[in-house]
Amino acid sequence: MRDSLGCTLKHPLAVAPTPTPPSLSLLGPLPPDGAECHSSTMTQEPLAGWRQIQLVFGDAATVLRVIVALYDSAGRPGMVSDLVAVAGGQRQDSVGARMEPDGGIQGTHWLVEGDRHSPRPLTEAEQEGLRVLAQALWDRCAATGAA
């Protein structure tokens, strides 16, 4: 089917793809439910006493999001990462960083598409997104007793 300019039109019964919920987007908000916090305390030096918290959600076939953070014994984040994988892992978008005690962040954004890996430094917006995500993860998992 073509319009008056000769452009091909979509089939009138075609269904638009379902939009991805914000909670399944890189640096998006945590989902309100449907994901369980997993936490463990490190026992080996030099990270003895630090807690690792992980939140995994999505259906893994079409989209999977994995958030991992390490917190010191006072609950301050030392590392945080966020990964979104789609198409069975054929496309992965991730950000990860070391969080310094002075508030600085050293990290990388990675985009993996098949065999192509494209790293770059984090933007200021991504750095702030990781700060927000680390706090949201701690708040959520502490509220459920996992932190």
Key descriptive features of the protein:
7-stranded antiparallel β-sheet, globular, mainly beta, 147 residues, 39% strand, disordered N terminus
Notes on the structure:
With about 150 residues, the chain is mainly β. The chain contains one helix and seven strands. It has one domain (about 35-145). The longest helix is centred in the C-terminal third of the chain and has 20 residues, at about 125-145. The N and C termini lie far apart (about 55 Å).
Distance between the termini: 57 Å
Within the largest sheet, what's the order of strands?
Answer: 1-2-3-4-5-6-7
H/E element order = EEEEEEEH
Q: Helical segment tally?
A: 1
How many individual domains? 1
Q: How would you characterize the largest beta sheet?
A: 7 strands, antiparallel
Shape assignment: globular
β-strand percent reads 35-45%
Helix content: 10-25%
Low-confidence stretches are 1-16
Q: Helices and strands: which structural class?
A: mainly beta
| Rg over CA atoms | 19 Å
Concise account of the structure shown:
The chain has one helix at residues 124-143, and strands at 36-41, 51-58, 63-71, 77-86, 91-99, 105-113, 116-121.
